[in-house]
Design goal:
Structural class: mainly alpha
Largest sheet: none
Order of helices and strands: HHHHHHHHHHHHHHH
Radius of gyration: 20 Å
Helix content: over 70%
Shape: globular
Distance between the termini: 43 Å
Length: 310
């Protein structure tokens, strides 16, 4: 029951990220993705760090910087570049392939052995998302495709390394989230200044949109995401990713008047079903590694090894 609650709370993060497109198009200044990245990350990071009242110490200065660049600083610009160079559907499909990166990296770095069901859930989830977002007019752009793939790989690597390094003793997910968002936002600032120039003039709608993006879409969402990484295995967390484009499709239909075809509805059902199946498979795998029989076997092997060493 506790695991189910953790999964449900973690799922709120990609669901929140699914609102990014609607908020950006309806409330924010156009063609300023890097400035938007800074406004999402840096104020939220500073606020969470102030609330946690904890700064990194020792090696956690550079570790936080690396994680912040992977999860935020590199991910945001590459994601936006992909979105600008590709039709939204193609960019979303590349993002939905992120769980496959995490499955491979988690096996190499964390020793998390993904079951066949987990891999199939990741593949089927990406396929379902493609049914929702791809159109017959979708065209590929080499730069956009490369940026989309690298952005997914960056977020995947950040997820795995966040799990690999954990947190310093006595430091909670609030502080860790604040450190990463701050580092990521600082990384984007020179890129935004170089590419986009001076910040745009902001009206009331923009302040409302950036306030939502900073507090809900980034601060709370990433706190829930990193909290989930700490409590669950990396593969289980990343399999929640397809909820983001599905949420975007639902918001587009409900709030923006965008139609949903029968094919899209079937794709949504497939992607959601794959997400649920992936969580069940991940839970089954985690349970098998933590079962009493497995623990007893590990203890027995440890005692045998200890006896041999002596």
């Amino acid at each position: 029951m506790k695991r189910l609650a953790t999964v449900a709370l973690t799922a709120l993060a990609p669901i929140s990220w699914g609102s990014t497109y609607a908020v950006a198009t309806e409330l924010l200044p156009p063609d300023r993705p890097l400035f938007t990245g800074v406004m999402r990350a840096l104020p939220a990071g500073l606020l969470l760090t102030a609330l946690a009242r904890t700064l990194p110490k020792g090696q956690w200065w550079w570790k936080s910087a690396v994680l912040g660049i992977l999860n935020i600083g590199a991910f945001f610009p590459l994601l936006f570049l992909s979105a600008y160079r590709l039709p939204g559907g193609v960019a979303a499909v590349l993002g939905a392939a992120g769980p496959l990166f995490v499955v491979g990296l988690a096996a190499l770095v964390l020793g998390e052995r993904a079951s066949l069901r987990t891999v199939l859930a990741a593949v089927v989830g990406a396929f379902g998302v493609s049914m929702v977002v791809l159109t017959a007019e979708a065209k590929l752009d080499a730069v956009g495709v490369v940026a989309g793939v690298i952005s997914s790989a960056s977020m995947g690597a950040g997820t795995v390394m966040t799990k690999r390094w954990g947190r310093p003793e006595g430091v909670g997910p609030l502080a860790m989230t604040g450190w990463q968002l701050t580092a990521g936002g600082l990384f984007i600032i020179p890129l935004a200044a170089l590419i986009e120039g001076a910040p745009p003039a902001l009206d009331g709608k923009a302040f409302l949109g950036y306030g939502y993006m900073m507090l809900i879409n980034t601060g709370i969402a990433y706190w829930l995401w990193f909290r989930g990484i700490g409590a669950l295995n990396a593969t289980s967390v990343t399999l929640l990713g397809p909820l983001s484009p599905l949420t975007a499709a639902v918001i587009g239909w409900a709030a923006l008047g965008q139609a949903l075809s029968p094919v899209q509805l079937v794709g949504m059902a497939i992607a959601f079903g794959a997400t649920v199946a992936g969580q069940l498979a991940a839970a089954r795998t985690a349970k098998s590694f933590s079962s009493p029989e497995k623990n007893d076997q590990n203890i027995s092997m440890d005692l045998m090894d200890e006896g041999v060493r002596r």
